[in-house]
Amino acid sequence: MRSIITHDMLVLRAKKWLGNRGCQVVLTEYRSYSPAIPDAIGFSHCKSIVIECKVSRSDFLHDQKKRHRKYVNQLGNYRYYLTPPNIVCKEDVPEGWGLLYVLDKRIIKVKEAPGIFGGDVRTAEWQILYSLARRITGHGLMDKILERY
Fold it and tell me: pLDDT tens digits for 56-109?
């Protein structure tokens, strides 16, 4: 009997996968000024990776209709969908996106995401990082963080 994979399970797997890919900062379902709320986004010193987790085909198809998907100003130098096998095939994945499958205890790359670098990605990500820094400062934690350096 197959176990049911939930969205929350996929998000946790995405977070771990991003950490294993050199992302020192990983946020899950983080709300900021950006119209997009990525299921998982990881930042390293030179790149960012966004993962959208989909547990059903209808969820994936609905995602394609979101307004912010039509904008160039999206998050992530690399963008992936993470799904169980047979929900989405690589031919379904829109241009600029890759595809990952979760299989038991591992994640396999079905379609490589092309790297997208430029001002539009950076602007969208600054909104998230600014929001995060503002929250840290607002809670009085910035001084504690910086005093160690």
Answer: 999 888 877 776 555 545 788 899 999 999 899 999 998 889 999 999 889 999
**What's the domain range around 18?**
7-147
Listed range (28-37, 51-60, 95-104) with the worst mean pLDDT: 28-37
Is the distance from CB of 39 to CB of 79 less than 8 angstroms?
no
Residue 135: CB atoms within 10 A of its CB come to: 13
Q: Which two tokens stand for residue 35?
A: 């119209």
Q: Per the structure, how many domains does the chain have?
A: 1
1 in any annotated domain: no
In a domain, 70, yes or no: yes
28 with 11: CB under 8 angstroms? yes
Strands 25-28 and 78-83: unpaired
31 token code pair: 């709300």
Give, as one character, the DSSP assignment of residue 149. Answer: -
Q: Is 75 within the bounds of a domain? A: yes
Query: To the nearest 10°, the Cα dihedral for 48, 54, 57, 60?
Result: -40
Residue 2 covered by a domain:
no
